[in-house]
Structure formats: structure tokens, C-alpha cells
Design goal:
This protein is mainly alpha-helical and 245 residues long. 52% of the residues lie in helices and 7% in strands. The strands form two sheets. A two-stranded antiparallel sheet has the order 1-2. It has a two-stranded antiparallel ribbon with strand order 3-4. The longest helix has 29 residues. It is globular, with a radius of gyration of 18 Å.
Length: 245
């Protein structure tokens, strides 16, 4: 497939000075030598993939959020439509508004803030993705460790660093925590229409952290992309709240 949104950083942001405003630290330097930092990151994804626990498989599937998964059946190729990461978090916002009995005006304020955060966070993330243009775990593992290895989740058609789900989940959690509060327990039933059972969380931050690590369990991200994406997303969320206030 063609790369998804390689020029997204040229779109005008809602609140950011530019898409590069919260540029993350550079990714771990590419190095195929055993014992190097990059090789160890790659080996960690490989080891996780061949020894996945059932709990980790459930988490990876719950946060898969692949809006267009491509599948091959013989000579036929087709796409399966699912919910996107952004739509998942808007669904969480709706659950939180309903549980806390927010009125129309308060609900619209929360939906708007989360939507603005999603847009600007994706823009920051994509700006870095096509700057660093880092290889995906699937490609690195097949080339340098095991040619037959496949990840649990389908590798998406855009660069690896930083993790988009980690970034936008952290942004959304920061914004929702501001409006709803910390230690807010809820049950996420957004994915039930796609055959996935609900999951319960004690806070938005707990959910965002699980969303991030799900990409490691699924075999599509290295851990530094997850951790640094989470940091970038929090900065965007705090910035959006500051601008809206």
C-alpha cells in the first residue's frame, strides 16, 4: 500500500505553532550488530511475538483499531473496516460524559477538546514519522533474525517512530483527565460491535498506557517509540488545554 499521509505536517494545526512544536528525542540509532541498542529493541519484539500470553493477545486485539486491514484470499485482496484509534478515544469520551451525566454543552466542550487534541497529536506524530522514517519491527526481524516471523497485528503503511496510538492516547487521556478527573473508573465497550469484549480501567491514563504497550504486544512498534510517543502526546494534551483556556 502507498504510505499514509506523508504530507500531513503541511496541514494547518488547530493549536500548535507547527507540527514540529513537540519534536521528540531521536529514535535509537539503527544498528544490526548483536548487543547494540537497536538490535536489543528488535530482539525484544521478536521474543514477545513468539511467546505471546493470552492476556497480551487480548490487549493487542482490543487496541488494534486498524481502520483498513488488508487481507488476501488467494488472488482476492480486500479491506476490513474497523474503528480508528481516534474514533476509539471519542467513544471513550462519550462513555465518560454519559457516566458523569454531562449536559449537552459540557459534552460538546469535551468532545471538541478531545477532537482538537487528536488532530494536533496525530500531526506531531506524523511529522516525526516521516522525518526519522524508521524501519518497522516486522521488516527488521525478517531481515536480521527470523525470515518467517510475522507480528500478531498487521504492520501499517507508514514509518515506525513514534507510535501513533501511544501519542494520541496520551493526549486524549490528558484532556479527559482534566475534564472528568483522575482515578475515573469506567468500562470501555467501544469495540463490542467488532466482536471484542469490554475492558475496564481505573483511569484514562491506565487505558492510554495499555493502548501504547499493545503495539509492542502486537509486534508493530519498538518500546522507545511507545515511551517517547507517550511523552509527546502528554505535551500536546497539556498545550491544547492551555490554549483552550
Amino acid at each position: 500500500m502507498a504510505a499514509v499521509e506523508p504530507y500531513f505536517n503541511t496541514v494547518r494545526p488547530f493549536t500548535l505553532d507547527s507540527a514540529a512544536q513537540f519534536k521528540p528525542v531521536p529514535p535509537v540509532e539503527f544498528n544490526t550488530k548483536k548487543g547494540s541498542a537497536f538490535y536489543e529493541l528488535t530482539a525484544a519484539v521478536y521474543k514477545e511475538g513468539i511467546a505471546l500470553t493470552s492476556d497480551h493477545q487480548i490487549i493487542a486485539a482490543f487496541w488494534d483499531c486498524n481502520p483498513f486491514a488488508v487481507q488476501n484470499e488467494g488472488h482476492l485482496q480486500y479491506g476490513s473496516k474497523k474503528i480508528s484509534p481516534g474514533a476509539h478515544w471519542l467513544g471513550i469520551a462519550g462513555i465518560a460524559c454519559e457516566k458523569t451525566n454531562k449536559d449537552f454543552n459540557a459534552s460538546m466542550q469535551i468532545y471538541t477538546a478531545v477532537s482538537i487534541g487528536l488532530m494536533d497529536a496525530f500531526m506531531c506524530c506524523w511529522d516525526e514519522k516521516f522525518r526519522s522514517n524508521r524501519i518497522r519491527p516486522e521488516t527488521a526481524i525478517r531481515r536480521y533474525i527470523d525470515p518467517a516471523w510475522t507480528p500478531l497485528l498487521q504492520t501499517p503503511p507508514f514509518p515506525e517512530y513514534v507510535s501513533g496510538h501511544s501519542t494520541i492516547s496520551s493526549t486524549s487521556a490528558t484532556i479527559l483527565t482534566h475534564y472528568i478527573g483522575d482515578n475515573f473508573s469506567y468500562t470501555d465497550s467501544v469495540e463490542t460491535n467488532y466482536g471484542l469484549p469490554p475492558r475496564s480501567f481505573k483511569s484514562f491514563r491506565q487505558a492510554s498506557e495499555e493502548a501504547g504497550i499493545s503495539r509492542f504486544y502486537g509486534g508493530i512498534h519498538f518500546t522507545d517509540a511507545i515511551e517517547n510517543g507517550r511523552t509527546q502526546g502528554q505535551k500536546v494534551g497539556e498545550w491544547v488545554l492551555k490554549r483552550l483556556r
